[in-house]
């Protein structure tokens, strides 16, 4: 079963007037993982798709949805998958990929049958992002051994973190999709600080490995018109091209960032100094 919904894009002038409920309704994705179902949000930000797949008792097939008006899901799209649960299997037109926790898989345009299953008593949790694609590139599994890894931040600023670039153009060839995984070290809580925007790309953040009972404050909005959304474990948030995307939590955590847009330049950022934010 596939549950799907549509999110329209929002003008920054309109977002200035949003209250808590409206802000959450437009940008927060509260439920991604439900037993033996696929949950998908189709966003008008670069027509980006965010979703979650939780196979428990059965193998789940990724079928198309009405918004795509396509014969199959990846007829005109590419897909990124990162497992945030126990070991699982992704079958792509009969080719088998085993994914441990925090391993990724890029699936190119044109793949027709994509199946997801778990191999352990506790399920795999497949977080997926998808973007339009106009060329086919080979499928590729990415582990930490072949990821591009960057260490950033300092303890004194509570932002010491490890960035695992998984589906980026220095690791795997894609049309426009990029994904990676950032791990906050124990005692560190700030991500993407200093904050930035990139008007040539939208982004989505998915938070996980947050301790039970804790919360994340995700910051968004124009640098001088910021807003916040309190989030829980296994929730995602959409970030327009005009918005910062930063956060702080009451414990350490990990998060997955996904992007699509005009270019594949990871360093294409307009930095906002911490003391310039409002």
TrEMBL record:
HAMAP family: KduI (MF_00687). This is 4-deoxy-L-threo-5-hexosulose-uronate ketol-isomerase. GO terms for molecular function: isomerase activity. Catalyzes the isomerization of 5-dehydro-4-deoxy-D-glucuronate to 3-deoxy-D-glycero-2,5-hexodiulosonate. Signal peptide: none annotated. The gene is kduI. The keyword Heme does not apply. Belongs to the KduI family. It catalyses: 5-dehydro-4-deoxy-D-glucuronate = 3-deoxy-D-glycero-2,5-hexodiulosonate. Transmembrane segments: none annotated.
């Amino acid at each position: 079963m596939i549950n799907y919904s549509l999110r329209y894009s929002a003008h920054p002038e309109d977002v200035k007037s949003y209250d808590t409920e409206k802000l959450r309704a437009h940008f927060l994705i509260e439920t991604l993982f439900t037993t033996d179902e696929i949950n998908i949000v189709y966003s008008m930000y670069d027509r980006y798709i965010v979703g979650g797949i939780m196979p428990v008792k059965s193998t789940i097939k990724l079928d198309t949805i009405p918004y795509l008006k396509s014969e199959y899901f990846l007829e005109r799209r590419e897909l990124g998958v990162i497992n945030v649960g126990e070991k699982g299997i992704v079958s792509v037109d009969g080719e088998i990929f085993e994914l441990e926790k925090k391993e990724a898989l890029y699936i190119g345009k044109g793949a027709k049958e994509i199946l997801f299953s778990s191999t352990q008593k506790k399920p795999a949790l497949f977080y997926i992002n998808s973007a339009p694609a106009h060329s086919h590139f080979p499928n590729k599994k990415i582990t930490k051994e072949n990821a591009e890894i960057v260490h950033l931040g300092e303890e004194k600023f509570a932002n010491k973190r490890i960035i695992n670039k998984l589906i980026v153009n220095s690791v795997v060839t894609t049309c426009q999709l990029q994904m990676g995984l950032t791990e906050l070290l124990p005692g560190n809580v700030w991500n993407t600080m200093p904050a930035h925007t990139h008007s040539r790309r939208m982004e989505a953040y998915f938070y996980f490995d947050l301790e039970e009972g804790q919360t994340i404050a995700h910051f968004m909005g124009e640098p001088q018109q910021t807003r916040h959304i309190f989030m829980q474990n296994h929730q995602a948030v959409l970030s327009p091209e005009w918005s910062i995307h930063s956060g702080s939590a009451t414990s350490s955590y990990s998060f997955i960032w996904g992007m699509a847009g005009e270019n594949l330049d990871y360093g294409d950022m307009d930095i906002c100094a911490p003391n310039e934010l409002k």
